[in-house]
C-alpha cells in the first residue's frame, strides 16, 4: 500500500487514514488498498455498499445518496475504475438513474490495456430500463442486460438493438448465470453495487467473494432496509428467507471524515 506512515499525525480532510491492519497510516492510496487479487480461472465478485451506523441502506429520499459523502464517492470511483463490469439490479438502476460509466483521467493507469470504462450489467425481468443506459454506452463498453426467457418481447427487441442481452432460460437470472456469462466475455473483475435484493441473491448463492462496506456516521432508524434483502419469489418459485453464516476476514479498515471503509474478504 503506498501510504505515509504517521502513527501520531492527524489526517487532512481529504486523506484516508488506515485503522487496520496498520493503525496510523495516512494518505492511503485506495487504488492499491482495493486492488483485485490476480485474475484466476473465475471472476472475483466484489460488492460495494453503504450503510448507516444502525445498519440502514436506504435513506428517506429512497436512495443511498442520503448516506453517501465525498470520501464515499471517492472510494466508489476507485472501485469502478478497478473493475471490468458493474453489476446492478434494475431497481437500483432505475432509482439511482444509472448511466454508462463516464471515463476519468485518473483511471488511465488503473485501466491500462482495458476499455476506458467498465461496462454496466443490469439484471431485470421487466426490461424497464432507461434508454440512456442502453444507448449512450461506448461500443467497447456496451451495457449488458441479463434477463429471462419470458421477458416482455416488445421491450426485448428495443433493448437488444442497443445492448448485449443475455437471456437465461429459467424463471430467474441466477448469480451463477451472471458470473459464467461475464467470464465468457473476459470480465473477471466484477463489482456489484446492489441493490439489497440482488446482493441477497449473491450471498445466498455463495458467490460473493468480497464486501466493501462503508459505514456512514448517521442513524436511519427502523424504517430503513438492510444492505441485503430476500429476493422476491419469481413466478413458479416459492419465496424463502435464506440464512447464512459465512466467515469473513477484515482485510482493512480505513477512515475519512467519520466514514469507515471496511474491506471484508471471504475466508
Ligand atoms: N445502500 C446501498 O449501498 C445501496 C446500493 C444499491 C441500491 N440501494 C438502494 O436500494 C434500492 C433498490 O434496491 P432493491 O434491493 O430494491 O432492488 P435491486 O436489487 O437493485 O433490483 C431488484 C430488481 O432487479 C431485478 N432482479 C433482481 N434479481 C433478479 C433475478 N434473479 N432475475 C431477474 N431479475 C432480477 C428485478 O428487476 P425488474 O423489476 O426490472 O424485473 C428486480 O425488481 C434503491 O432504493 C437504492 O437506492 C442502496
Automatic annotation (TrEMBL):
The keyword NADP applies. SUPFAM superfamilies: Dihydrofolate reductase-like. Keywords: NADP, Oxidoreductase. It comes from the Bacteria. InterPro entries: DHFR-like_dom_sf (IPR024072), RibDG_C (IPR002734), Riboflavin_Biosynth_HTPR (IPR050765). Transmembrane segments: none annotated. Residues 43-229 form the Bacterial bifunctional deaminase-reductase C-terminal domain. This is Dihydrofolate reductase family protein. Pathway: Cofactor biosynthesis; riboflavin biosynthesis. The lineage of its organism: Bacteria, Bacillati, Actinomycetota, Actinomycetes, Streptosporangiales. The keyword Cell cycle does not apply. Gene3D superfamilies: Dihydrofolate Reductase, subunit A.
Amino acid at each position: 500500500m503506498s501510504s505515509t506512515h504517521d502513527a501520531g499525525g492527524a489526517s487532512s480532510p481529504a486523506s484516508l487514514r488506515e485503522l487496520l491492519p496498520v493503525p496510523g497510516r495516512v494518505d492511503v492510496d485506495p487504488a492499491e488498498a482495493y486492488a483485485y487479487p490476480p485474475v484466476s480461472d473465475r471472476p472475483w465478485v466484489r460488492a460495494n455498499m453503504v450503510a448507516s451506523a444502525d445498519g440502514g441502506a436506504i435513506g428517506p429520499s429512497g436512495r443511498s445518496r442520503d448516506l453517501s459523502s465525498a470520501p464515499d464517492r471517492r472510494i466508489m470511483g476507485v472501485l469502478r475504475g478497478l473493475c471490468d463490469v458493474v453489476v446492478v439490479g434494475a431497481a437500483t438502476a432505475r432509482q439511482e438513474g444509472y448511466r454508462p460509466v463516464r471515463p476519468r483521467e485518473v483511471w488511465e493507469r488503473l485501466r491500462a490495456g482495458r476499455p476506458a470504462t467498465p461496462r454496466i450489467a443490469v439484471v431485470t425481468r421487466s426490461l424497464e430500463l432507461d434508454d440512456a443506459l442502453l444507448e449512450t454506452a461506448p461500443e467497447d463498453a456496451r451495457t449488458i442486460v441479463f434477463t429471462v426467457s419470458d421477458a416482455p418481447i416488445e421491450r426485448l427487441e428495443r433493448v437488444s438493438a442497443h445492448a448485449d442481452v443475455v437471456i437465461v432460460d429459467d424463471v430467474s437470472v441466477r448469480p451463477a448465470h451472471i458470473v459464467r456469462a461475464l467470464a465468457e466475455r473476459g470480465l473477471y473483475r466484477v463489482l456489484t453495487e446492489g441493490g439489497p435484493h440482488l446482493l441477497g441473491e449473491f450471498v445466498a448463492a455463495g458467490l460473493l467473494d468480497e464486501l466493501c462496506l462503508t459505514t456512514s456516521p448517521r442513524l436511519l432508524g427502523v424504517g430503513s432496509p438492510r444492505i441485503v434483502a430476500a429476493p422476491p419469489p419469481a413466478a413458479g418459485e416459492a419465496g424463502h428467507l435464506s440464512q447464512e453464516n459465512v466467515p469473513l476476514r477484515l482485510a482493512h479498515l480505513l477512515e475519512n471524515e467519520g466514514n469507515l471503509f471496511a474491506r471484508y474478504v471471504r475466508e
